[in-house]
Design a protein that fits this description.
heterodimer, A: mainly beta, B: globular
């Protein structure tokens, strides 16, 4: 059974930094692309980033490019999202989401999400 | 960026009704289209992938169709557990983009 467990959320001041983690199990983590998707309070879903399982290619939404960095530690089956220069509009539930063996094959499973609040 | 225009934004329906939700892409996306269901406070769940392939474990009352830039999700006979918000996702080109969502409410 695929399981994705996010952690690291919380309250951070504008301009601050935060690192989210996603512990994965139930599949061969190094072989799969992994995503971050967020959802602001009362709003829809916004894809944030993808990190491929093979060559380590990364892709980002324009709204986070240059501020967020996604990485993975395959020895720990863990995905990370390093967020910096945080703004109020980064406030959201952040979901870790599993992709396919090939980076472009969409999202099949989601974690339960972690709350990030950017406020002074 | 590819824009996904989803309609309607909300609808009211009764148990047993047939419901159709539509997503229009701003350019052709081949078969790189999926549908998700999200209930309040929960993570999204994939229903359909590749336009029309049913995710394992999803009831057969859910179906997807379309091609090119026009896609639909149909629930053939709405059940009480289907009241939720539904999203389409295009994963043909980066950045991937979701539709705005359709909230299905009880009439």
């Amino acid at each position: 059974e695929v399981q994705l467990l996010e952690s690291g959320g919380g309250l951070v001041q504008p301009g601050g930094s935060l690192r989210l983690s996603c512990a994965a199990s139930g599949f061969t983590f190094p072989n799969y692309a992994m995503n971050w998707v967020r959802q602001a309070p009362g709003k829809g879903l916004e894809w944030v980033s993808l990190l491929s399982g093979g060559d380590g290619s990364t892709y980002y939404a324009g709204s986070v490019k240059g501020r967020f960095t996604t990485s993975r530690d395959n020895s720990k089956n863990t995905l990370y999202l390093e967020m910096s220069s945080l703004r109020a509009d980064d406030t959201a539930v952040y979901y870790c989401a599993k992709g396919g063996r090939i980076a472009g094959t969409g999202i099949d499973y989601w974690g339960q999400g972690v709350h990030v609040t950017v406020s002074s | 960026d590819i824009q996904m225009t989803q309609s309607p934004s909300s609808l009211s329906a009764s148990v047993g009704d047939r419901v159709t939700i539509t997503c229009r892409a701003s350019q052709a996306i081949r078969n790189d289209l999926a549908w998700y269901q999200q209930k309040p406070g929960k993570a999204p769940k994939r229903l359909i992938f590749g336009i029309s392939s049913l995710q394992s474990g999803v009831p057969s009352r859910f179906s997807g169709s379309g091609s090119g830039t026009e896609f639909s999700l149909t629930i053939s006979s709405l059940q009480p557990e289907d009241f939720a918000t539904y999203y389409c996702l295009q994963h043909n080109d980066y950045p991937w983009t979701f539709g705005q969502g359709t909230k299905v409410e009880i009439k």
